Description:
Elements: E1 3-6, E2 8-11, E3 14-22, H1 39-62, H2 70-84, H3 86-99, H4 103-119, H5 124-149, E4 169-173, H6 178-184, E5 189-194, H7 202-209, E6 214-216, H8 221-224, E7 230-234, E8 239-242, H9 246-267, E9 283-288, H10 294-299, E10 305-309, H11 324-337, E11 343-346, H12 361-369, H13 378-384, H14 386-399, E12 405-409, H15 415-434, E13 443-448, H16 451-455, H17 457-460, E14 466-469, H18 471-479, H19 497-512, E15 516-519, H20 530-535, E16 540-543, H21 548-556, H22 560-564, H23 567-571, H24 576-585
Parallel strand pairs: 3-4, 4-5, 5-6, 9-10, 9-16, 10-11, 11-12, 12-13, 13-14, 14-15
Antiparallel strand pairs: 1-8, 2-6, 3-7, 7-8
Bound molecules: phosphoenolpyruvate and magnesium ion.
Phosphoenolpyruvate binds near residues 205, 449, 470 and 521.
Amino acid sequence: MSFQVFGIPVSRGVAIGRAVLVASSRIDVAHYFIDDASVASEIERCLRARDEVVRELETLKVDLPGDAPQELAALLDVHLMLLHDEALTGATKQWIVERHYNAEWALSAQLEVLARQFDEMEDEYLRERKADLEQVVERVLGALAREQGKGQGNAASVAQRDFAGEDPLLLVAADIAPADMMQFKRSVFHGFITDIGGKTSHTAIVARSMDIPAVVGTREASRLIRQDDWVIIDGDVGAVIVNPSPIVLEEYRFRQRQSELERARLARLRHTPAVTLDGERIELHANIELPGDAPAAVEAGATGVGLFRSEFLFMNRGGELPGEDEQFEAYRAAVEAMQGMPVTIRTVDVGADKPLDRMSPSELRHEHVLNPAMGLRAIRWSLAEPSMFRQQLRAIYRASAFGKIRLLIPMVAHLSEIRQIQEAIARVKQQLTDSGHAYTHVHLGVMIEIPAAVVMLPLLLPHVDFVSIGTNDLIQYTLAIDRADEAVAHLYDPWHPAVLQLIASTIAQARQAGRSVSVCGEMAGDPAFTDLLLAMGLRSFSMHPSQIPTVKQRVLRADAARLSAAVEQILGSEDPAAVAELAFAGQRHRGTTLQ
Ligand code: PEP
Ligand code: MG
């Protein structure tokens, strides 16, 4: 039966493929693809974990005290029976063999399939056995996790491979942790659908960085869609069409072809400098998550990296953080890949919706209860871990000997933080001099993500070389809207007059103080805001490489001086989006290049 689910469109385009459900187990499992050579050992690993649980349960049964209720022994028998059932083990093996899922993923995928079958059973007693199945699977997952802990490889250490199945695959999940998203980067998925999340949740950001259609905040997609269903993701409007009719399928295939043609057309702008009609040169920089993203940035025509989210180097490591040398190599690789263009490295921004996997479950739970977005994240975390912070600074400064690096600090709100950062930098430079490591001058910048930082810009600006506006968090903190919460996603509004005034004020103050200013939040890559940001005086944008051609096209058609005449009116209006649309529509020129 064909049906539709709606959510929030977060990454444009159309994807058509089969659904792959990633179950949200109570145990947080890693999801990654294994290569051909690892299939047999992965099955082995799964069976070993199963056998360990069988032994545990058998021992439990033997040790049951004489006065234990009879039902308990019977329950253990049910669990043992489930463990030996082909519907669980046989099918799990099949996921490993056919889809190349790692053991944990295969097991939780099969749990999902069986849980649905239990849900549909008429008999109440049998229906309730679902809970037993979940317990059994969680025990096996626990055994696998213990084995992992003994150093038998982890998600990050297993080579990714492009698993080319017959049909394109679309990932469907309740939620995808940023760490898992990184595993899926450059893997097989052609689209993402999640139940939760908002436009600037990190799942959405990573999906955009992969240039893959995605719809989040669907609330129920992972419950309604079944493993292997044919699904269309319409990332432009936020629709998910499940088991489409042949006519609908054909229509979407046509749209897919059209957008490929449009993409190819825009790609020809790659070597065209981003200059407005009135001659203003605009920097279009790239946001990257790993050094491996840098070639795509160059390919898209970026003139530098405006935001290297270094925290992604710290994820998927089974609790181990990268040491100084490893970080240095990563920063150096990014700098070298950018071929002399500047690379802005942001110090780790962990916490909130980007927890490190070394955080214990109780820490994570704790974070859920309190308010993680306002907790120990970003620079607060770095200053709370001074040796880790200095280690990162050393790695960044060492890489500065190989190219142009700028240092960017996330979530600054206090002058005292800048002082501590400067002290740490001074100490690190001394250490590097003492140990004979080369480094050059590195510009220091702060992210403007908290309204307080805008208010105190006159005090902050004298201490920094540049500022970068993180609109994703600035909107979150100005409007008190959790950026990852789909329940309030409709209130997350970049057009809110308060948000626009903060952005305009930051740009104006920075320019007046002679400091460079850029926007590296999602607004920078959204062509709906290009004219407005240019009008406010912004000359540096940083976005996902895939967004550069579209924004460049806007820049080429803009007259910055004429646009700026409308700013006052837009900022003073109750409905800035409507006023901007009216004011700019008349001015939009046809570009000089590709029409
Ligand atoms: C932002 O907040 O706008 C930003 C660029 O940082 P992140 O999205 O990584 O929090
Ligand atoms: Mg931010």
